[in-house]
């Protein structure tokens, strides 16, 4: 069989074109993979920087600007990946999320960056209404927390209210520090009042760390009591038998939550001797 030279040349060119195109696609894929790996490595590096790598007076201005840009961009990169992953798991995830919220829980926690409520509880977006402040305080003259409680109970109709503290709380330790802390003084005074209420028990604990840990627990209990004092809680419980108030403490050493076993009904009964409100009988 004799193949015309023209056809042979055409086939050779076609084969060369296909090979070149395939090789070009491989190169593009490799470049994309390398870029993704570099980005991942870069963001991972930022995430695990040592304290000494962070901006300090000895760094050049351009280095500080570069650091700030990287740490800013990292959040958006993480957000993009999170959104993509959610859509892979459930294509209708964001459609459902945009329709509204109906959380079962109100979470009142500490502002400490190491205690993200959803992550340590395994809850998804829309399952918990979150409020955080220094040392997870519930102060009746704090319009922020009072508004959150009122909205969560009367409008969202949450079934559980969790006050969650954590061992090693900087706010609790600061409250026991004999020095002027400026604007924090009136805020931390509430924790000192908790110590005053339980002074005999706390002073009997010889170990300082153990005493701080116990104060963390007692502070959570007192904040639970402050939640139950509110009209929204008393009236909702009388009508619906919910929400129930819980006191929990998070431990950094094992990552577990400790339930302080707050007896909601008993605490409410005791509180109503002094804080009884019309329409709050149960």
UniProtKB/TrEMBL annotation:
Pfam families noted in UniProt: Pro_CA
Reaction equations catalysed: hydrogencarbonate + H(+) = CO2 + H2O
Binding sites annotated in the UniProt record for Zn(2+): 110, 112, 166, 169
EC numbers: 4.2.1.1
Start-end of Basic and acidic residues biased regions: 50-59
Cofactor binding description: Binds 1 zinc ion per subunit.
GO molecular function ontology, one term from the record: zinc ion binding
Ranges of biased composition (kind: Basic residues): 13-25
Protein name per its UniProtKB record: Carbonic anhydrase
Organism: Colletotrichum shisoi
């Amino acid at each position: 069989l004799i193949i015309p030279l023209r056809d042979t040349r055409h086939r050779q060119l076609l084969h060369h074109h296909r090979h070149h195109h395939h090789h070009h696609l491989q190169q593009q894929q490799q470049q994309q993979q390398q870029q993704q790996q570099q980005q991942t490595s870069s963001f991972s590096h930022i995430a695990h920087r040592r304290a000494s790598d962070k901006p300090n007076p000895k760094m050049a201005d351009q280095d500080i600007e570069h650091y700030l840009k990287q740490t800013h961009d990292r959040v958006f990169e993480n957000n993009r990946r999170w959104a993509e992953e959610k859509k892979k798991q459930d294509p209708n995830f964001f459609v459902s999320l945009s329709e509204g919220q109906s959380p079962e829980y109100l979470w009142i926690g500490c502002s400490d960056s190491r205690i993200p409520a959803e992550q340590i509880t395994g809850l998804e977006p829309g399952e918990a209404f979150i409020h955080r402040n220094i040392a997870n305080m519930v102060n009746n003259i704090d319009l922020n927390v009072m508004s959150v409680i009122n909205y969560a109970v009367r409008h969202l109709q949450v079934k559980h209210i969790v006050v969650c503290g954590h061992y090693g709380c900087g706010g609790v330790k600061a409250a026991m520090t004999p020095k002027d802390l400026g604007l924090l003084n009136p805020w931390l005074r509430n924790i000192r009042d908790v110590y005053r209420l339980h002074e005999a028990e706390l002073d009997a604990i010889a170990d300082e760390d153990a005493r701080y840990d116990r104060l963390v627990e007692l502070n959570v209990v007192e904040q639970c009591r402050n939640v139950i004092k509110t009209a929204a809680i008393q009236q909702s419980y009388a009508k619906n038998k919910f929400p129930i108030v819980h006191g929990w403490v998070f431990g950094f050493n094992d990552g577990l939550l400790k339930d302080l076993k707050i007896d909601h009904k008993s605490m409410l009964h005791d509180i109503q001797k002094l804080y009884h409100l019309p329409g709050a009988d149960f």
